[in-house]
């Protein structure tokens, strides 16, 4: 008898790609139906500023519509569709949820446990994409790529950017501080080694790999990293401990003229404090890809500052991210159907 699988994807995480990988992994003994949501052409809900659905973060879709689509399916593969407690109460046959994300922020995990629903995710799906983007973000700020581009587009030839007192510095002469040493942070370390810069890592929950220790990477406390780094790049998860932890006190400890890079999560940063640090010149610049509220308001003060680069949460957006997530989800589905333990349970 075929096992029923519902797939809720979107215009980035294409449901057809997931269906193809699941079919390849599981054969024809599965009955798959797919739903494509309109993200990113339409914004998702962001619960960091106050969730509209049982405390869930970053989701898309109305509960009634999602429940109706899942119906009698035993397995769900989703990117952004929410699964709340009230929804699970209406989905008695659902036993497995694969979330194609690094964290199940759109799933009520306690409710899933209470209903004996196994939830798995796809950690590291976009680690390569975000790490590469982070290197690009660092170079855009430190080598004045953004400044030169904006001026030239506006009809101004910034020859003054060649002046010794204004031009950029090479990574090889700087110290880069990486906060968070997970799948992304550790890959940023690997990429940075080619530039010859000094690398500091702050993460109290992990130890450096032997290779990184042998290559001179230092594992330091957060305060020491902030005081020593010319560039601070964030790769931590949002927790009660890290929410807003880059605030006025932390920014005051960062050395004068340093750069802040955030390709992790918006709630890590106190944006009012960051605005003041940039406007005063204490920070040399910042590059931000994630925000507490997305999309950002058109009148957001940070949009008016000349020393900040902003991108619309695209660090993890690559074709490879989709295929990696689909491969991971398909393997988890295969293992569940075969009665094997999951690789990445939440």
Automatic annotation (TrEMBL):
Gene3D superfamilies: NAD(P)-binding Rossmann-like Domain. Keywords: NAD, Oxidoreductase. Residues 136-315 form the D-isomer specific 2-hydroxyacid dehydrogenase NAD-binding domain. InterPro entries: D-iso_2-hydroxyacid_DH_PdxB, D-isomer_2_OHA_DH_cat_dom, D-isomer_DH_NAD-bd, NAD(P)-bd_dom_sf. Residues 63-345 form the D-isomer specific 2-hydroxyacid dehydrogenase catalytic domain. SUPFAM superfamilies: Formate/glycerate dehydrogenase catalytic domain-like (SSF52283), NAD(P)-binding Rossmann-fold domains (SSF51735). Belongs to the D-isomer specific 2-hydroxyacid dehydrogenase family. This is 2-hydroxyacid dehydrogenase. It comes from Bradyrhizobium jicamae.
């Amino acid at each position: 008898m075929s096992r029923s699988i519902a797939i809720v994807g979107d215009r980035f995480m294409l449901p057809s790609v997931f269906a193809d990988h699941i079919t390849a992994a599981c054969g024809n003994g599965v009955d798959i139906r797919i739903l494509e949501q309109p993200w990113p052409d339409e914004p998702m809900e962001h619960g960091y500023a106050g969730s509209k659905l049982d405390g869930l973060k970053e989701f898309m879709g109305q509960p009634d519509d999602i429940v109706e689509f899942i119906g009698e399916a035993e397995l769900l593969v989703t990117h952004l569709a929410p699964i709340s407690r009230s929804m699970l109460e209406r989905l008695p046959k659902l036993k497995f949820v694969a979330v194609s994300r690094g964290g199940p922020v759109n799933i009520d995990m306690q409710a899933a446990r209470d209903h004996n629903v196994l939830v798995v995710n796809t950690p590291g799906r976009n680690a390569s994409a975000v790490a590469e983007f982070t290197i690009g973000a660092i170079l855009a700020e430190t080598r004045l790529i953004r400044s030169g581009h904006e001026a030239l587009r506006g009809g101004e030839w910034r020859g003054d950017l060649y002046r010794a007192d204004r031009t950029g510095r090479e990574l090889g002469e700087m110290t880069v501080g990486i906060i968070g040493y997970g799948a992304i942070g550790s890959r940023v370390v690997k990429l940075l080694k080619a530039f010859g810069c000094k690398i500091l890592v702050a993460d109290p929950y992990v130890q450096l790999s032997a290779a990184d220790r042998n290559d001179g990477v230092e594992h330091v406390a957060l305060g020491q990293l902030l005081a020593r780094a010319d560039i601070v790049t964030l790769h931590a998860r949002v927790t009660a401990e890290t929410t807003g932890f880059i605030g006025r006190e932390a920014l005051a400890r960062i050395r004068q003229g340093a750069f802040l890079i955030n390709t992790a999560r918006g709630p890590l940063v106190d944006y009012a404090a960051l605005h003041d640090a940039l406007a005063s010149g204490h920070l040399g610049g910042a590059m931000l890809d994630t925000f507490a509220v997305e999309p950002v308001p058109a009148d957001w003060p940070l949009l008016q500052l000349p020393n900040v680069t902003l991108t619309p949460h695209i660090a993890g957006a690559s074709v490879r991210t989709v295929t990696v997530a689909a491969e991971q989800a398909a393997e988890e589905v295969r293992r569940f159907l075969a009665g094997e333990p999951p690789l990445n349970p939440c």
